[in-house]
Amino acid sequence: MLRPAATYNLNAQAMDATIGLIKEVFEKRVNVKEIYIDTIGKESVYQKKLEKIFPTIKIKVAKKADSLYPCVSAASVCAKVTRDAALEVCYRSYILENTGNAEHQPVAQGWGSGYPSDARSTAWLKENMDSLFGWGSECRFSWGTAKDMLETGKAVTKVDWPAANDDEQGVRMTDFFVAAPTGEDFEEHDELVNWFGRPVSEQVF
Fold this sequence. Notes:
Elements: H1 10-27, E1 34-38, H2 43-53, E2 58-62, H3 70-99, H4 119-127, H5 144-152, H6 186-189, H7 191-196
Parallel strand pairs: 1-2
């Protein structure tokens, strides 16, 4: 399995998305006085960061906010309906790109909601996992469910990566570098200065 690029964890994604949504609402000149948010992670840290960015607004971040505040409950329903619709559109696009026919496979048999408890999601991951590359951009490799499949799957190609601090035969990249000259020796060794002349001083003007 190839090593994935740097991860963009779910907490950071949620924070960035929340900030972006709030800014977008303000840009539409909506008179917002209070903001209620269902947290991912530690609510006090989340709330302090938002309060620094939006100091004039009352902000409340809480765990299970969708069960405490009706406005968050309504937003949660809207978010899930929007997510399901977006996943359906994305799945049709995925099928079209890979088969040339968007009707090749019914959406009902697609990749599900993305939750590990959704049998359609886990079944799709298992059926579409490449032994070396895993999946494409449709899957977040830092997702625990995906990581477990890649690390414990029987059909996965195992790759032993060298330790980051291992030097091949004791040779380091810096061994090929030469320290730049300084002080009086600088102009002697700086060939670019000799080729292209010297900077014009302010005294000329």
